[in-house]
Amino acid sequence: MKVGIDKLRFASAHQYVDMVELARARHAAPDKYTIGIGQTQMAVIPPSQDIVTLAANAAAPMLTATDLAAIDLLIVGTESGIDNSKASAIYVAHLLGLSSRCRTIEMKEACYAATAGIQLAQAHVRMHPDKKALVIGADIARYGLNTPGEPTQGGGAMAMLISADPQVLALSTESAVLSQDVMDFWRPLYHTTALVDGKYSSNIYIDYFQDVFQEYLIKTQTPAADLAALVFHLPYTKMGLKALRSVLPQVTETQQRDWLRHFEYSRKLNRRVGNLYTGSLYLSLLSLLLTDPNLRPGDQLGLFSYGSGAEGEFYTGTLQPDYQRGLDLGLPQRLQRRQRVDVTTYERAFNGQLAWVADDQQTDWQSDPHRFVLTGQQNEQRQYLDRQA
Ligand code: HMG
């Protein structure tokens, strides 16, 4: 039985900052940000969006009444939690109108959690082929203003519907996993921004990729040449390019050119959003599927998921005949329609997130065009609004 990604859809903020402008404000060479790091725009998440609203905004438009009735598992992967106890998925299930018989949980392991969610969802659907699972990776990447990590911020949510006979990608049951205690990036409970050893984390990422890539090829006896394209977790798009270059000597020059060409499509949309932690690999997959004219049904795609701390997984998926039907076809236009804001406005949004205090607070949600918004906090409870309710 084929099980995999039936539909996928992305949501982020309605505004972005231009990386050349940000580089100038930080007295950095623009080429460092646009070429050295590989980002051209960065999503500016307003205080009226958090992981709950991003997740609901990503998923709601793609779910039909039939989907809603069949979903009995919702997993939100995130490292931008809003509560130490209650799962963000409960709020998301409520906003989406999922059944109260749906199992609803939040998962954490840095940027890797959405992949763990997909693997659990895949196993669940294999046991219950008439059911569907919704997996959402939702995050806001925050390193701080004027930090080396700043140009690798961003945010958004990728929603993926996992089902039998999927429209987009049939997933392999085999995968290769590596999990070890590594201090490359972490965020203690008292921090709102990540702590990171940037260079170390980039080296560990490549080590992990090489390890799980080789392990997968050996374990499944797959020749590297069988993989039409490789798709990466993209904390910044140059990171994936570095990892890809590290395995190019394993294939012919023609295949090297093919992999590099596919890679350029796979980073197109990530270049315009920035890091979105758990959803990043899957935005790259969507970018490849939406923009690359050289893909064919039947192509086998390799997926590399990496979460600091650290856990990595390599697995594959086979492109299905009608894969375009399950894609978020309007995404390039939505990104195009976003409003460009200056660095001062970006900094105000960055500093204006709801404070981690008990006081009642309000956001400027009226200026946020999304269906689901966070209006503030009252009596220590976050307040969500569905404009269509
Ligand atoms: P930095 O020290 O400011 O940058 O931090 P740099 O000096 O290393 O320069 C970056 C690149 O720009 C270099 O290229 C320079 O040569 C180049 P490279 O040698 O790496 O190929 N450069 C230029 N290129 C063209 N023209 C110029 C120019 N100047 C310099 N004029 C760093 C960069 C990525 C370390 C920093 O932004 C950072 O710490 N980011 C956050 C950490 C991160 O993203 N790590 C990635 C791996 S870990 C991961 O993926 C997990 C994660 O998503 C979290 C999770 O799992 O939850 C982060």
From TrEMBL:
<comment type="similarity">
    <text>Belongs to the thiolase-like superfamily. HMG-CoA synthase family.</text>
</comment>
<dbReference type="Pfam" id="PF01154">
    <property type="entry name" value="HMG_CoA_synt_N"/>
</dbReference>
<dbReference type="InterPro" id="IPR013746">
    <property type="entry name" value="HMG_CoA_synt_C_dom"/>
</dbReference>
<dbReference type="Pfam" id="PF08540">
    <property type="entry name" value="HMG_CoA_synt_C"/>
</dbReference>
<dbReference type="GO" id="GO:0004421">
    <property type="term" value="F:hydroxymethylglutaryl-CoA synthase activity"/>
</dbReference>
<dbReference type="InterPro" id="IPR011554">
    <property type="entry name" value="HMG_CoA_synthase_prok"/>
</dbReference>
<feature type="domain" description="Hydroxymethylglutaryl-coenzyme A synthase C-terminal">
    <location>
        <begin position="256"/>
        <end position="349"/>
    </location>
</feature>
<feature type="domain" description="Hydroxymethylglutaryl-coenzyme A synthase N-terminal">
    <location>
        <begin position="2"/>
        <end position="165"/>
    </location>
</feature>
<protein>
    <submittedName>
        <fullName>Hydroxymethylglutaryl-CoA synthase</fullName>
        <ecNumber>2.3.3.10</ecNumber>
    </submittedName>
</protein>
<keyword id="KW-0012">Acyltransferase</keyword>
<dbReference type="InterPro" id="IPR013528">
    <property type="entry name" value="HMG_CoA_synth_N"/>
</dbReference>
<keyword id="KW-0808">Transferase</keyword>
<dbReference type="InterPro" id="IPR016039">
    <property type="entry name" value="Thiolase-like"/>
</dbReference>
